[in-house]
UniProtKB/TrEMBL annotation:
Keywords: Coiled coil. It comes from Xylaria grammica. InterPro entries: Nuclear_Pos-Cytoskel_Interact (IPR053005). GO terms for molecular function: tubulin binding. The lineage of its organism: Eukaryota, Fungi, Dikarya, Ascomycota, Pezizomycotina. GO terms for cellular component: cell cortex; mitochondrion. This is Uncharacterized protein. The keyword Transmembrane does not apply.
């Protein structure tokens, strides 16, 4: 509500300032404790007889609508109440959101703790597995190291007196190693490789013979008429022996090829040493070639040692004892275990015995290559024979089913 008020300050004796209003606001005038005379609205100032030292005063008030003012105040109060309610609602929503966020945070923390615990358990399991593997590998390496050291010690004891005692490891040559020392090391490695090639050739030849015997038996089984009774256990045992022989033949072929390649490399290095003066020191380039030869030699040695000892390819082959699946007039009497190959593995392949240098190395190489070729052709033949065996088994099952059906019909007719 518009209202115009014009006030003047009252100058009191003590310097106080009081605001005064006209007659419509008597309560204010009474509160001020003033006795105001009648004013002349035309004159700018009241008379000089103004009480309490009032020197100038002028009031101007229009008419006031108290009802409108009350309504205005009520509207303002209603607005304030609405704002208060809105603030309360917002505060409540904020509390709810904070509570929900707190719950989510607690759940997230719990989930992270569970994930951390699971990861810790998994890491612990992995560490335990790795620790076991490391311990097992360390034991294997320690065993190989002990066997290699034993070989080297025995080889060293068998060398001639002219051998430098510093050459213990064939490739353990110091910075001042001479061409003569390198030649001795290469000769020792070539002799060891020749011995391993000889053992591999013997085993390969025995495997080829064994494979030929099994192939002959498979041929005889394939030529049997369908009506003859067969021993399924004997067939399965024969197939298992054949698979075992094939696996060892493949492994023997790989070992023989690796030994041949390694021996060629060692022979090449030996030829390089032969062109040098015996007392000349090795150049950095030659030492690098020796490092490559050492890596290949150690790898082939480990492979052949595992082939000879860990797998035990000859002694682990079990020969079929049940020969009842062949007719008496066709079958061969006697046990199939007459092929005893253990005599071929009497000499330990890792025993550091230096063989005669005059052995026929080329003949051994040819034997290994010949055994590898025969094994490849025999593998193809085995697969064909296995297919024929499967067909025979299917025919046998059909004949037995037909026989059972005919017997059932015969009993029904009787």
């Amino acid at each position: 509500m518009d209202r115009t008020v014009t006030l003047f300050c009252l100058n009191l004796p003590h310097g106080a300032a009081i605001e005064l209003v006209d007659d419509p606001m008597k309560h204010l005038r009474e509160a001020a404790g003033l006795q105001m005379p009648a004013f002349d609205k035309a004159s700018p100032l009241p008379s000089a007889n103004t009480p309490n030292g009032v020197v100038g005063i002028r009031f101007q008030f229009p008419e006031r609508d108290l009802v409108s003012e009350v309504r205005y105040l009520e509207e303002e109060l209603a607005k304030l109440n609405i704002e208060r309610m809105q603030v309360e609602v917002e505060l409540k929503e904020s509390k709810e959101r904070y509570h929900e966020q707190a719950i989510e945070h607690r759940n997230e923390i719990a989930r992270l703790k569970e994930d951390a615990a699971d990861r810790e358990k998994q890491l612990t399991r992995n560490l335990n597995i790795l620790e076991k593997k490391l311990i097992r590998n360390l034991n294997i390496l320690q065993t190989e190291k002990s066997a290699t050291q034993k070989e080297l010690d025995e080889v060293k004891s068998q060398k001639s007196e002219g051998v430098d005692p510093l050459v213990i490891d064939p490739f353990g040559l110091g910075l001042g190693a001479s061409a003569q020392q390198a030649t001795w090391a290469l000769e020792a490695c070539i002799e060891d490789t020749d011995r391993r090639m000889d053992e591999t050739g013997k085993i390969g030849t025995a495997l080829v013979q064994k494979r030929s015997e099994l192939s002959e038996r498979l041929d005889e089984m394939a030529q049997l008429p369908p009506e003859e009774e067969l021993s399924l256990d004997a067939i399965r045992a024969l197939e298992a022996d054949m698979e075992e022989v094939e696996r060892h033949m493949e492994e023997a072929g790989k070992i023989g090829t690796a030994l041949i390649q390694n021996r060629n490399q060692l022979s090449k290095r030996l030829g390089e040493m032969a062109r040098l003066p015996p007392e000349e020191e090795l150049t950095p380039e030659l030492r690098k070639r020796f490092a490559d030869a050492e890596k290949d030699y150690n790898e082939v040695t480990r492979q052949s040692a595992r082939f000879f000892h860990t797998n035990q390819p000859i002694s682990s082959i079990k020969v079929v004892q049940d020969l009842e699946y062949l007719p008496q007039e066709r079958g061969r009497k006697g046990s199939a275990s007459s092929w005893d190959f253990e005599r071929l593995a009497n000499a330990s392949p890792t025993r550091p015995i230096v063989p005669n240098r005059k052995l026929a190395v080329n003949n051994r190489v040819e034997d290994i290559e010949f055994a590898a070729e025969i094994s490849s052709s025999l593998l193809t033949q085995v697969r064909n024979l296995q297919g024929q065996l499967s067909e025979k088994d299917e025919e046998l099952r059909e004949l037995r089913a037909e026989n059972s059906r005919l017997e059932t019909q015969a009993r029904a007719v009787q």
